[in-house]
């Protein structure tokens, strides 16, 4: 594969990543590590930009980070749906790490003063204190995955990865009905845990 | 939590979620209590964790600072408030200490995570009006924050982490909380989220905070909401189901809190025994599943708490010295009202003692002995033996029948007495256990429940005397009476006696007299008192029963608008009727009826109503019968017998139906419906003599004249005697028109349109449909007309009618689950798309065997979705599947009855069978059909087709 120039994010040529993805999908576990080494930084960079509200020319949709990084790194013509699904699943896990890290950093910054936000401007809407939600969920999810690993995966793929139902079906090789049921149950369970 | 347990929870969760309401209830009931509790908590979390619905990344931008917001830290200003420091985290947000710089006073500011709506700010103003030492005062409200009284101390939740409270403290706190609730409830504010996290302890006082989820019960717009709010562990059963919360919901939560204060841990199943029996009783009554059985008000609760003085708190229950009381788990729960519920004008009915000792000496003697004891009380009045003897025959019992608790209940209701006293004696080894229970007749509340033990037979009478003493004393003790939460059936809310009298006359006139006779009285009541909500409601119900849905709706909407002026039970009645006849939302109607039945267990009307349109039109015939039986046990009236007989008929239990009709006749509780049931039974049995006799009887009944002619028209059409049917069809239309019932006339005419369409007479069908729509519009008329038009190929008009229905009757169960799917299927078939037709009918399969409202009122139209599905399968070249559908119709003759669709179903079945190669069966069906049509008009095209098809079948 000829060396293609680095893209605007400094990402590696799509050739190499694609090969690694296919190798991993074919059973080569070592390929996964090298693949992760390529994907994780790219994903984190993208995520940071998103978090800083920087919009690129091709505007990022909320669930689009994973797709975006996929499109940038992988030669989609050479990859099957199953490999794509695996990529997404891996990326979702990475997203979780990235967001949890960011949340932790945020929380430690806050320890000095309080960082609650008050809207004096009535137009803005305050969403749930995000750092704490994400951290709390991360821990609850870890405990939950000990009892229900598949259901926890569904949550991870959907909440952290932003994957659609079909993508989850492909990634985990389960039926749509199972995805829906798992999601419903996991939500109820986690909601209860988080509200204790 | 181990994996196996977890999987059980998950399995039950999914099963319960995917089940119907009834199946769910049954599933949960079968599970062990802890499992059930877990699953219910999970099911109630359906609306929680909303933030999970959007991907995490969408929250990410907020991980960085946003310029439009203000960081709250020491020294920051929020309007006139200067922030000092953070106090902690609340359930809904963070709490800060601040100084109101205008007044120089310290306050607490709670920032919440969600933006308040304008509606919420309105409610907050109501809450701000609360001023009580045990309520944390609300000073100010902003877009997403509260400013409240600053309470120095810790939450009760924090305190309880260190262990349970000493008895005195718990009692003191409980009284204060009850006082706070009493104050709020008196102003129409319900807390809805009472829990230790919302209670602030400061030295010896306790304050209730965070009315963040409270809603004023005076605000009608607010109480219309059915969302589930509150913390699951403290939620009353009705809250978990999303039903409206009231004072008793708070009382349930209070019970959880009191339990937790005493036990030191959260309420779990099984409940721990508490060290104080009296407090345990109070807690138990707070935690009753049915709101009607709890303390009815915080004030009542306060009195109960006040009565547990230190000296009386740990009273041992055993009477006889040295005896150890061994009680069954059920008997261990005592429900003692601290206030007596009987006034000097109350009478009680003393039932026979239930004697399980096997020793006949106790029969009779105990009852007599007790009667003597009780008669000495100035406060108690026992109903006389003569009165009992003359009442029993009215219940079809011999005058000297043994007064079992059930019979005593009946006597109590008929004589307008207040309570039934049930005694029992059982042997426990060599000892005897005596029990005495007083039960209020109308509400079902247990007024007193005493037990005592006698060591020897000789001591039984004296022990009995002691129980009687305690009972008498308790009754005579204090002055408060039961909060009249149960309005006697005769009362209705109107300031005018004249209006009430007119209303009662209208209501009490025999049902067999017909609505024409009853309505004038009701309308007079409205003329006298135009705001008489219940009268409007009954008028509405009457019109609807007569088939005048538009008129009915007018009155019911009026009643619904006026419902806040009515009593609790009237309001439930009005809401029921509103859903029944205005929105058509039968699921919601059922839920209201269930609430009604639960809150007023002695009222037979909810069961009776449920057994009517609600269950019958949706095909739940068995359930309907069960409801009628409950209602009959509560001494219901004619409509209940009518419903029972009708549903038995629908289930093809012909002899049972006749029996019910006979019972109704014996009690002089006949009605239009019971006459018709006799008619239909004769029809199904093929008994022509009986049929014409029943028809005559029915016709004599003024209310049924038109309907009998209508049925005869349908029967004629079914037999193919179309000329006769056409002549006959004019009769019911004319009768209905004469009495001004245009919609009813329209429905009769639309019935004709439908059978003309079935027989392929497109022009006649279109003509009839047009005439029907001109006579009187209504959802059922429109549907029937649209059906006829669709079947005759007049798509545009049919579609227009369907669109109107879809738009105007979005919540109507019959429309959404039967009418529209059927029409859409016909449209798809017309467009040559049978697959789409089958798809359209999917949603109807839940109500496949339902009558629908059109079947309920018009006696035709039931099972049409199945017919349409059969047609779709035929068009899709799946004759075997089609045969199955048409066969279903034939298997349910008792639902289809005289509907001409029956004949069509046979024809289609024969065709389907022939197409799928089952020639033998097909021949049989053709034969039956041609027999049915033996006297048919010879020129009918489908008849000729059937004859030809039959002849063509191979031998």
Could you describe the 3D structure shown?
By secondary structure, chain A is mainly α. Chain A has helices at 14-25, 29-51, 64-73, 81-110, 130-147, 149-160, 165-172, 176-194, and one strand at residues 116-118. The radius of gyration of chain A is 18 Å and the shape is globular. In chain B, 54% of the residues lie in helices and 9% in strands. Chain B is built from 42 helices and 18 strands. In chain B, a hairpin with a 3-residue loop joins strand 3 and strand 4. In chain B, helix 31 (762-775) runs antiparallel to helix 32 (779-791), helix 34 runs parallel beside helix 37 (864-875) and helix 37 runs parallel beside helix 40 (901-915). The longest helix of chain B is centred in the N-terminal third of the chain and has 20 residues, at 167-186. Chain B is globular, with a radius of gyration of 33 Å. The model of chain B is unreliable at 64-70, 212-228, 311-341 and 476-491 (pLDDT under 50). Classes of the chains: A mainly alpha (196), B alpha+beta (955). The interface between A and B is large, with 55 and 53 residues. Strand 1 of chain A pairs antiparallel with strand 1 of chain B, so a sheet runs across the interface.
Secondary-structure map:
The complex is a heterodimer of chains A (196) and B (955).
Chain A: H1 14-25, H2 29-51, H3 64-73, H4 81-110, E1 116-118, H5 130-147, H6 149-160, H7 165-172, H8 176-194
Helix pairs in contact in A: 1-2, 2-3, 2-4, 4-5, 4-6, 4-7, 5-6, 5-8, 6-8
Chain B: H1 3-17, H2 21-30, H3 33-43, E1 70-72, E2 77-78, E3 81-89, E4 93-100, E5 105-112, H4 118-128, E6 138-141, E7 145-149, E8 154-155, H5 156-160, H6 167-186, E9 189-190, E10 199-202, E11 205-208, E12 215-216, H7 220-223, H8 237-240, H9 247-263, H10 277-286, H11 298-306, E13 347-350, E14 354-355, H12 365-375, E15 381-382, H13 385-391, H14 405-415, E16 419-428, E17 431-440, E18 446-454, H15 460-477, H16 497-508, H17 515-528, H18 533-545, H19 549-561, H20 568-583, H21 586-599, H22 605-616, H23 621-633, H24 638-650, H25 654-666, H26 672-685, H27 688-700, H28 705-718, H29 722-738, H30 742-758, H31 762-775, H32 779-791, H33 795-808, H34 813-830, H35 834-840, H36 852-858, H37 864-875, H38 879-891, H39 893-896, H40 901-915, H41 919-932, H42 941-952
Parallel strand pairs in B: 13-15, 13-16, 14-16
Antiparallel strand pairs in B: 2-3, 3-4, 4-5, 5-7, 6-7, 8-10, 9-12, 10-11, 16-17, 17-18
Helix pairs in contact in B: 1-2, 1-3, 6-9, 6-11, 9-10, 12-15, 16-17, 17-18, 18-19, 18-20, 19-20, 20-21, 21-22, 22-23, 22-24, 23-24, 24-25, 24-26, 25-26, 26-27, 27-28, 28-29, 28-30, 29-30, 30-31, 30-32, 31-32, 32-33, 32-34, 33-34, 34-35, 34-37, 35-37, 37-38, 37-40, 38-40, 40-41, 41-42
């Amino acid at each position: 594969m000829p060396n293609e120039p680095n893209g605007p994010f400094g990402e590696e040529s799509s050739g190499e990543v694609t090969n690694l993805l296919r190798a991993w999908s074919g059973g080569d576990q070592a390929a996964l590590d090298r693949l992760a080494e390529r994907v994780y930084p790219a994903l984190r960079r993208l995520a940071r930009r998103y978090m800083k509200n920087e919009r690129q020319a091709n505007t990022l949709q909320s669930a689009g980070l994973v797709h975006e990084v996929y499109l940038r790194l992988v030669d989609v013509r050479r990859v099957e749906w199953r490999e794509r699904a695996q990529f997404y699943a891996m990326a979702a896990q990475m997203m979780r790490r990235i967001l949890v890290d960011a949340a932790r950093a945020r929380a430690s910054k806050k320890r000095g003063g309080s960082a609650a936000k008050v809207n004096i401007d009535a137009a803005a809407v305050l969403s749930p204190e995000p750092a704490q939600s994400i951290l709390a969920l991360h821990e609850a999810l870890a405990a939950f995955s000990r009892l229900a690993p598949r259901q926890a995966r569904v949550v991870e793929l959907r909440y952290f990865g932003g994957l659609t139902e079909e993508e989850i079906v492909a990634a985990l090789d389960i039926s749509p009905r199972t995805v829906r049921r798992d999601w419903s149950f996991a939500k109820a369970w986690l909601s209860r845990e988080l509200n204790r | 939590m181990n994996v196996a347990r977890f999987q059980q929870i998950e399995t039950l969760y999914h099963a319960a979620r995917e089940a119907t309401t009834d199946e769910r209830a049954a599933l949960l009931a079968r599970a062990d209590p802890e499992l059930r509790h877990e699953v219910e908590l999970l099911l109630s979390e359906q609306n929680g964790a909303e933030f999970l619905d959007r991907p995490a990344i969408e929250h990410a931008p907020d991980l960085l600072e946003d310029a439009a917001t203000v960081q709250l830290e020491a020294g920051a200003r929020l309007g006139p408030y200067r922030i000092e420091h953070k106090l902690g985290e609340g359930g809904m947000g963070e709490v800060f200490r601040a100084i109101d710089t205008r007044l120089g006073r310290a306050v607490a500011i709670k920032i919440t995570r969600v933006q308040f709506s304008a509606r919420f700010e309105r409610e907050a103003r109501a809450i701000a009006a609360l001023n009580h030492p045990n309520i944390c005062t609300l000073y100010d409200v902003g877009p997403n924050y509260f400013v409240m009284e600053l309470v120095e101390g810790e939450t009760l939740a924090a305190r309880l982490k260190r262990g349970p409270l000493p008895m005195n403290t718990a009692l003191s706190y409980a009284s204060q909380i009850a006082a706070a609730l009493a104050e709020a409830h008196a102003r129409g504010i319900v807390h809805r989220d009472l829990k230790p996290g919302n209670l602030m302890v400061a030295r010896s006082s306790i304050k209730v905070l965070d009315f963040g989820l409270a809603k004023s019960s005076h605000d009608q717009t607010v109480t219309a909401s059915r969302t589930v709010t509150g913390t699951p562990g403290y939620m009353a059963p009705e809250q978990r189901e999303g039903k409206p919360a009231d004072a008793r919901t708070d009382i349930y939560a209070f019970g959880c809190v009191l339990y937790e204060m005493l036990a030191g841990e959260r309420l779990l199943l099984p409940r721990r025994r508490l060290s104080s029996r009296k407090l345990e009783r109070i807690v138990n009554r707070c935690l009753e599943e049915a709101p009607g059985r709890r303390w009815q008000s915080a004030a009542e609760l306060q009195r109960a708490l006040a009565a547990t003085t230190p000296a009386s708190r740990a009273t041992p229950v055993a009477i006889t010295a040295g005896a150890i009381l061994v009680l069954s788990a059920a008997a261990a729960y005592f429900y003692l009202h601290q206030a007596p519920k009987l006034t000097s004008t109350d009478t009680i009915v003393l039932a026979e003692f239930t004697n399980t000792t096997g020793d006949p000496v106790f029969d009779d003697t105990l009852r007599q002995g007790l009667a003597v004891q009780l008669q000495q009380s100035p406060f108690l009045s026992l109903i006389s033996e003569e009165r009992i003897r003359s009442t029993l025959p009215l219940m079809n019992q011999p005058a000297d029948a043994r007064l079992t608790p059930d019979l005593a209940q009946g006597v109590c209701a008929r004589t307008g007495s207040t309570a039934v006293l049930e005694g029992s004696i059982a042997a426990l080894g060599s000892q005897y256990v005596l029990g005495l229970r007083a039960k209020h007749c109308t509400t079902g509340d247990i007024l007193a429940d005493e037990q005592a033990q006698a060591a020897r037979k000789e001591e039984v009478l004296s022990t009995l005397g002691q129980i009687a003493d305690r009972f008498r004393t308790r009754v005579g003790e204090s002055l408060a009476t039961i909060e009249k939460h149960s309005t006697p059936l005769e009362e209705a809310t109107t300031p005018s006696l004249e209006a009430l009298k007119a209303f009662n006359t209208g209501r009490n006139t025999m049902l067999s007299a017909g609505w024409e006779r009853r309505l004038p009285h009701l309308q007079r009541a409205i003329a006298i008192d135009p705001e008489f909500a219940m009268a409007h409601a009954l008028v509405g119900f009457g019109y609807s029963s007569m088939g005048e849905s538009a008129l009915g709706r007018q009155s019911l909407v009026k009643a619904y608008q006026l419902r806040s002026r009515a009593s609790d039970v009237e309001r439930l009645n009005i809401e029921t009727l509103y859903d029944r006849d205005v929105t058509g939302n039968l699921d919601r109607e059922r839920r209201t009826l269930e609430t009604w039945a639960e809150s007023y267990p002695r009222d037979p009307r909810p069961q009776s109503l449920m057994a009517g349109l609600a269950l019958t039109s949706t095909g739940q015939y068995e359930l309907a019968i069960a409801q009628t039986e409950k209602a009959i046990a509560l001494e219901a009236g004619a409509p209940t017998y009518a419903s029972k007989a009708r549903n038995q008929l629908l289930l093809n239990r012909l002899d049972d139906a006749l029996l019910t009709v006979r019972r109704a006749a014996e009690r002089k509780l006949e009605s239009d419906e019971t006459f018709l049931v006799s008619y239909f039974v004769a029809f199904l049995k093929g008994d022509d003599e009986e049929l014409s006799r029943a028809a005559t009887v029915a016709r004599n009944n003024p209310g049924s004249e038109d309907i009998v002619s209508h049925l005869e028209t349908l029967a004629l059409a079914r037999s193919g005697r179309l000329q006769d049917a056409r002549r006959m069809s004019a009769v019911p239309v004319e009768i209905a028109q004469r009495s001004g019932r245009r919609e009813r006339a329209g429905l009769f005419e639309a019935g004709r349109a439908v059978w003309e369409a079935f027989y392929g007479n497109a022009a006649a069908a279109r003509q009839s449909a047009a005439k029907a729509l001109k006579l009187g519009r209504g959802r059922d008329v429109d549907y029937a007309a649209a059906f006829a038009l669709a079947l005759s190929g007049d798509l545009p008009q049919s579609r227009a009618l369907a669109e109107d229905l879809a738009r105007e009757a979005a919540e109507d169960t019959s429309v959404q689950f039967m009418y529209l799917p059927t029409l859409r299927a016909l449209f798809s078939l017309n467009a040559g798309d049978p697959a789409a037709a089958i798809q359209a009918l999917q949603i109807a399969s839940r109500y496949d065997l339902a009558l629908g409202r059109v079947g309920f009122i018009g006696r035709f139209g039931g099972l049409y979705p199945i017919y349409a599905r059969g047609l779709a399968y035929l068009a899709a070249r799946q004759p075997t599947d089609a045969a199955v559908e048409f066969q279903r119709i034939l298997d349910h003759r008792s639902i289809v009855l005289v509907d001409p669709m029956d004949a069509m179903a046979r024809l289609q079945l024969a065709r389907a069978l022939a197409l799928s190669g089952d020639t033998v069966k097909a021949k049989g069906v053709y034969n039956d059909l041609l027999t049915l049509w033996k006297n048919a008009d010879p020129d009918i095209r489908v008849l000729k087709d059937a004859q030809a098809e039959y002849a063509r079948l191979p031998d």
